[in-house]
Design goal:
The complex is a heterodimer. Chain A has helices spanning about 30-45, 60-65, 80-90, 100-105, 110-115, 160-170, 180-195, 215-220, 250-265, 280-290, 310-315, and strands spanning about 50-55, 70, 95-100, 120-125, 130, 135-140, 175-180, 200-205, 230-235, 270-275. By secondary structure, chain A is α/β, with parallel strands linked by helices. In chain A, strands 2-1-3-4-8-7-10-9 form an eight-stranded mixed beta sheet, with helices on both faces. Chain A has a two-stranded antiparallel sheet with strand order 5-6. In chain A, α1 (about 30-45) crosses α7 and α6 packs antiparallel against α9. Chain A starts with about 25 loop residues before the first helix and ends with a helix. In chain B, the strands form four sheets. An eight-stranded mixed beta sheet of chain B has the order 7-6-5-2-4-3-16-9. A seven-stranded mixed beta sheet of chain B has the order 11-10-12-13-15-14-21, sandwiched between helices. In chain B, β3 (about 35-40) and β4 form a beta hairpin. The longest helix of chain B has 21 residues, at about 185-205. Chain B is globular and about 85 Å long. Chain B starts with a strand and ends with a strand. Classes of the chains: A alpha/beta, B alpha/beta. Chains A and B meet through β2, α3 and α5 of A and β9, α7, β10, α9 and α10 of B.
């Protein structure tokens, strides 16, 4: 009879670092941080087996507040750094995150290419339509003609639609959450982490300091005569984002089209999962190419005793 | 009669397959115990523009090219006369003028070339290339398809050459067959037939016995390696235990990554083709932090995108990556397929702020092998990015190497936190630096903590690194200035301590790298002229010195190899003792000269510079050195050389 060691049950406390937090009071980042910590607890992941990567900006400080391996990288480059790390050690859960300027502006190329690569990791984008840490300039998601109190002029360029872009880029899990509903967000993040493949979670977020357009009150619909939220949950309206037969090209196209249509709905804005398909990941393809990877992660393979004589022999 | 010493050149439009024929020729010579130095010049173009491959063969070591050509094979008209007839600004004047008196030309009789009357000093051999191809195809019932097999012209060229210098045909047949294995062996046989028919045609139609050049197998044949620089560099990466290579396609660096990609399966190496070089460098940094030896390969334009990643690796003390940075002609897109040593100052100062990194510039293929291998050790021991700086010439030369071995062959992975065997810093004799009343782990001295800190302020500045996934080895890391925890700090004391921690590594590295890997003085300790140079001009300078020494001229050569940290004291000592100095570089501004002036205060006024996209020839080098030995020009001159005559 085998005796199994009791599995340690991690709680949200196990993912909290004791570093003093310097975000503005009421920042949406707090909700996202809580969402991440709740998701990790839900999945009961060992903090020593989790690595959180971030870009630059207010959101970039998130890993410092999570008790796990934390990498605060460069502006816009979080996805390449996280991808390199993930490919080397598939035993570690990799979570990447950054702001909307980071991901959809300076990092747009990596946002697109990470979708088509379909590496197994979750990518959270803190989407508040402004560059907070540089005091509130328009971010790539702010629509044309909008002007926050921090901007001298209206936005002269249009905002992008990250959900539709993610669909086109090839992300196999696409969702949107709301920072001030951390419980709902945690559920989405947990699903994104569990998903095998590239998962985008665009998180609508308030910036109480610079964005006076999309405030908590605005999302709550406090200004609307009927006082209803400007958000609704896709799952509550029976939206089915999942591709059930991934060999059926038509189903994939139909589900992608439905996600894109949903992504253009304005008021109310859908949150929840827009699209999900279990397709072969980049790592699956690598295991075909390099059979040893099916046995263990790259970092554990002994590459220090290679036989290079055969390579030299053909040069004679 | 000149035996076993000749330069053979084949020229034709890009895409006509001259590489195949030159490389078979080179290999056939190498297998026969001869030394080979082959270099290719080609345009940044897929099809049609002029390219040529030059193969120098010798009994003794050949490390450079000579300008004169003994046998020229012309697959087209342009190879002989240049492109002046169809370009407003000619890019070249053909190779006819490079042929030495007594030499020969083999050309396709179909190109309608009339040998000029003023070159009666060379022999012209028109050969009906297509007819020969057709005959070979007729034998297998494919004679009607001759036009589809134009690529066989290369093999015809080869067969014709061998007949002219009376080389044993079997040696070449063996090499050709070796190139076409398995399903393609039929094509191999067809190539051998075409070559054989060309061999016989030339034998029957020309007086080969009177041709003044001979190639004969060397009975004292040693098994040598015949390799290109990028192959040697790739093999060094495999030998060093590199597990992760990223790249974005760019000339002339791509070949290295493609070579590695081809060996992914049998060597357990992951090669990732990225969306750009920013991605390449950052993936490699991520992989290095994760615990593998990682690297990337690029050229100037790609490196220009990588620079923020270099600073990122340095401030986060990533154990890598190793970057092989193949120089080509700049600036901007510049001369994508041509030679230049134009990026030394760039790689020395790639990014904002002061940070430590290593730059080493190997001078030949054996040094490429050693330096790339060592680079991975330094990256992990000192936790920083290491740049190895070859160039287009080193990447593409195809040359014989006696033996490929590592003088310094131990794998050194540096200090690591592995969890189970972890002991507090003090117990390891790795004293923590006191900082603001606290030791580098954030506790008061003597508290005896057992907490792992990724950026602990240790005595020597190296903090043991942990690998994500290791129990108890958790850490944070940031591109911001940080404290021992890896959390952001803007505190004055910590900033100063961390700068000292990182920058202090340069001194450790200078001590750790063997002197003979940092610099070398070739030739006699005292000489009338001291040449100062770096990188791939090494072979050319050594060849020129051999010629000058044979004429009892006294020259030595200071080769600078480690560029950062720079061995300033050793270099200065040599420079101060020299009778006369000349700086030789393949760039516009004399970039090593600037580094030497900055580091030693010695300014070398006499400079021979070349920036026309072509490497120095042996002839140019001999002429430049001889002029200086003769006391002219005045020691304060700057000479710009160009191969265009």
């Amino acid at each position: 009879m085998s005796v199994e060691a009791p599995v340690k049950k991690f709680t949200i406390k196990d993912y909290k670092s004791d570093l003093h937090n310097d975000w503005c009071p009421g920042c949406g980042d707090f909700g996202i941080l809580t969402g991440i910590q709740m998701a990790l607890a839900q999945l009961n992941l060992d903090p020593d087996k989790v690595a959180v990567f971030s870009g630059i900006g207010c959101s970039g400080k998130t890993p410092h507040y999570v008790k796990a391996y934390g990498f605060h990288t460069l502006h816009g480059r979080v996805l390449p750094v996280a991808t390199g790390a993930r490919l080397v050690n598939s035993d570690v859960t990799v979570i990447a995150l950054g702001g909307d300027g980071d991901g959809y502006g300076i990092g747009a190329g990596y946002f697109v290419n990470s979708g088509r690569r379909n590496v197994d990791m979750a990518y959270l984008v803190h989407n508040n339509s402004v560059y907070g840490l540089t005091k509130g300039q328009a971010s790539p998601t702010l629509s044309k003609g909008k002007k926050t109190k921090s901007m001298p002029e209206q936005a002269i360029q249009d905002g992008i639609n990250p959900i539709a872009m993610a669909v086109a880029a090839g992300y196999t899990f696409i969702a949107r959450g709301y920072a001030l509903e951390p419980k709902h967000l945690a559920g989405i993040i947990a699903r994104a982490i569990e998903h095998k493949g590239a998962a985008l979670v665009d998180v609508l977020q308030t910036c109480p300091t610079y964005n006076d357009l999309y405030t908590k009150e605005w999302y709550d619909g406090a200004d609307l005569p009927e006082k209803r939220s400007r958000l609704y949950k896709l799952e509550e309206r029976g939206f089915d984002p999942v591709v059930h037969d991934v060999t059926d090209e038509q189903e994939i196209v139909a589900k992608k089209a439905a996600a894109v249509v949903k992504s253009y709905e304005k008021e109310p804005i859908p949150i929840g999962i827009y699209y999900q398909a279990e397709l072969p990941t980049y790592e699956d393809a690598l295991r075909q190419r390099i059979p040893t990877l099916a046995e263990k992660p790259l970092v554990d393979i002994d590459v220090f005793h290679r036989d290079i004589d055969a390579l030299l022999e053909v040069m004679r | 009669m000149q035996k076993n010493r000749l330069t053979w050149m084949i020229g034709g439009p890009q895409g006509s397959g001259i590489n195949a024929s030159a490389e078979v020729f080179a290999k056939a010579c190498s297998r026969a115990g001869l030394r080979v130095y082959a270099n290719i010049e080609y345009h940044s173009n897929i099809m049609g523009k002029h390219s040529f491959y030059r193969v120098r063969v010798g009994d003794e070591d050949v490390r450079s090219y000579q300008e004169k050509v003994d046998i020229l094979v012309a697959l087209d008209h342009e190879t002989l006369v240049g492109d002046g007839d169809h370009r407003r600004w000619p890019t070249h004047y053909g190779h006819l003028h490079e042929i030495d008196s007594g030499g020969g030309v083999i050309f396709d009789s179909e190109i309608g070339y009339e040998p000029p009357a003023d070159r009666s000093d060379i022999r012209f051999h028109p050969v009906p290339f297509m007819e020969i191809i057709k005959s070979a195809l007729d034998e297998v019932g494919k004679g009607e398809q001759a036009r589809r097999y134009e690529i066989l012209k290369n093999t015809v060229a080869l067969g014709a050459t061998l007949a002219l210098c009376e080389y044993p045909f079997d040696l070449v047949a063996e090499v050709i067959i070796g190139q076409f294995k398995g399903k393609r062996s039929e094509i191999g046989q067809l190539n051998v037939r075409a070559a054989k028919l060309a061999f016989e045609h030339v034998h029957d139609h020309f007086d080969c016995a009177a041709f003044p050049y001979r190639l004969q197998p060397n009975p004292d044949r040693k098994p040598r390696i015949l390799a290109k620089g990028y192959e040697i560099i790739a093999i060094a990466k495999l030998r060093a235990g590199c597990a992760f290579q990223t790249y974005y396609p760019i000339s002339p660096a791509t070949d290295e990554s493609v070579y590695l990609e081809r060996h992914q399966r049998d060597q357990d190496l992951l090669v990732v083709q990225c969306e750009d070089e920013i991605s390449s460098i950052n993936m490699a940094v991520g992989a290095a932090h994760m615990g593998v030896r990682s690297s990337t390969a690029t050229s100037g334009p790609g490196f220009a995108l990588m620079v923020e990643g270099i600073g990122f690796s340095a401030i986060t003390e990533a154990p890598g990556p190793v970057i092989t940075m193949y120089q080509r002609g700049g600036p901007s897109t510049g001369l994508p397929t041509r030679q230049e040593q134009g990026d030394l100052q760039f790689v020395l100062h790639p990014a904002q702020g002061d940070f430590p990194h290593v730059v080493i510039a190997p001078g030949d293929l054996r040094e490429c092998y050693q330096d790339v291998f060592s680079a991975f050790n330094w990256a992990e021991q000192f936790q920083l990015p290491v740049i190895v700086l070859p160039d287009k010439k080193l990447a593409a030369i195809y040359t014989t190497i006696d033996k490929l071995e590592l003088k310094y062959d131990a794998i050194e992975r540096g200090e690591r936190f592995t969890g189970s065997e972890w002991t507090p810093y003090g117990a390891k004799g790795n004293d923590l630096v006191e900082q603001d009343g606290h030791t580098g782990d954030g506790h008061k001295p003597g508290e005896g903590v057992n907490e792992y800190l990724r950026y602990a302020l240790t005595e020597d500045g190296i903090s043991p690194r942990s690998r994500p996934g290791t129990p108890g080895g958790r850490f944070w890391s940031t591109s911001d200035e940080h404290d021992p925890d890896g959390h952001i700090t803007e505190g004055v004391e910590m900033r100063i301590a961390m700068m000292h921690k990182r920058m202090g590594k340069l001194e450790l590295i200078a001590k750790a790298i063997p002197k003979d890997q940092q610099l070398a003085l070739h030739g006699p300790a005292k000489a009338d002229l001291t040449v100062v140079a770096w990188g791939s001009t090494k072979g050319t300078i050594l060849d020129a010195m051999r010629i000058l020494e044979a004429h009892a001229r006294s020259v030595n050569f200071l080769q600078c190899r480690l560029m950062r940290p720079f061995p300033a004291a050793d270099v200065e000592a040599i420079l101060r003792k020299a009778k006369r100095l000349v700086l030789i570089e393949e760039n516009y501004s004399g970039q090593l000269g600037s580094l030497i002036a900055e580091q030693t205060g010695v300014r070398i006024a006499d400079r021979v510079l070349k920036f026309d996209g072509r490497p120095f020839s042996e002839d140019e080098m001999v002429a430049a050195l001889r002029e200086r030995l003769d006391g002219k020009p005045e020691p304060k001159t700057e000479v710009v050389m160009t191969h265009v005559r």
